[in-house]
Fold CRS2-associated factor 2, mitochondrial.
Amino acid sequence: MFLSRKLLLPWRRPNQGAQALAGRLLRSSSSLSDADDDPPFTRIPKRLPRAPSPPPPKPKDLAGKIRPDEPAHSDLPFDFRHSYSETDPAWRPIGFREPTRFSPFGPGRLDRPWDGVAAARGGGGDGEGGERSREEVLGEPLSEEEVAELVERYRHSDCSRQINLGKGGVTHNMLDDIHNHWKRAEAVRIKCLGVPTLDMDNICFHLEDKTGGKIIYRNINILILYRGRNYDPKQRPAIPLMLWKPLAPIYPRLVQNVAEGLTFEETKELRNRGLNSPPLTKLTRNGVYVNVVDKVRDAFKTVEVVRLDCSHVGTSDCKKIGVKLRDLVPCVPILFKDEQIILWRGKMQCGTRQGWYHANLSADQRKAYSFHMQHHLLNKKVMCYEPTITGHSFERGIAGSELSDGKIEEL
């Protein structure tokens, strides 16, 4: 019985080719008869029809409007600028590279008019009230133990609460970044690089003045900005953001064809002498320039012309360095060529106690230097000798936000 079944099975097994042919015939016949097929019931579809999708929202219903219903308002008691530390309100441009009607805050997004340089605040601000509120936010001064604890927590390079300050200096949007860090941290670490490091006092002044915080640590180019004991993130000031960086205005030429007080031949001789002299120092791109001003001042005690090698720094940064050195040293830039800066100390008159000063400074340079010195002397009482400008000694005491000049003595 078993043997007979084994013999019959191979003959009963269907052929694979015949099966494939039969399947093709059945599929073709079913497709032909689908048009004539009319069953007495409705076939259930395999997938239910999808619900109609809602129409896309109209542009006017979107949350982020280009032009809001009402412009933003801020009670901050200062004019809004792209950079606070790298621009001087005393400098007036002679032209603009873009129409002044284009505000970097966006069309209709700020209630302050934009004049091409700054968005001026209204006349209703009260500087004394803002100063009192800042003192209330800071609270009692920190003890030495508290300062040491904060410094140890935030001074290291792997600190997560760090803001990098570049060639733009203290910018407007950086103020918002600082307050965002202050939501979850008592202090923020600020690392400064590039042209602004020529004047670290100016950076510290604007950081404290614009944010309301206090610098509790300063080491070369590293700062730690403390928010205050009574700081409340829910009561932080409203800071409208700049949507783009405005184009820099056009200012008068930094280097004149003929230096003031010299002839063309004398100016040409000074330029050639500076190009052929060894460089005083070599500056790198985005470096730390905290000691450059002192080096130039010391060099001017023995030489008349100084050359700074700024290879790979960039033409724009070279001019910014020249402008800062002109006001800080002070000196006269006479040539920018092939990323080399040639500085002339100007006409000198000798005297006692560092008694040398420039007799050929213009009125704008004197005004810029005096504005810069106010920033340096704020919240301090120091004896500042300014023989480079007037040949006098000034004792200035600061009480709150007022600047008072002491008596003037001849050197």
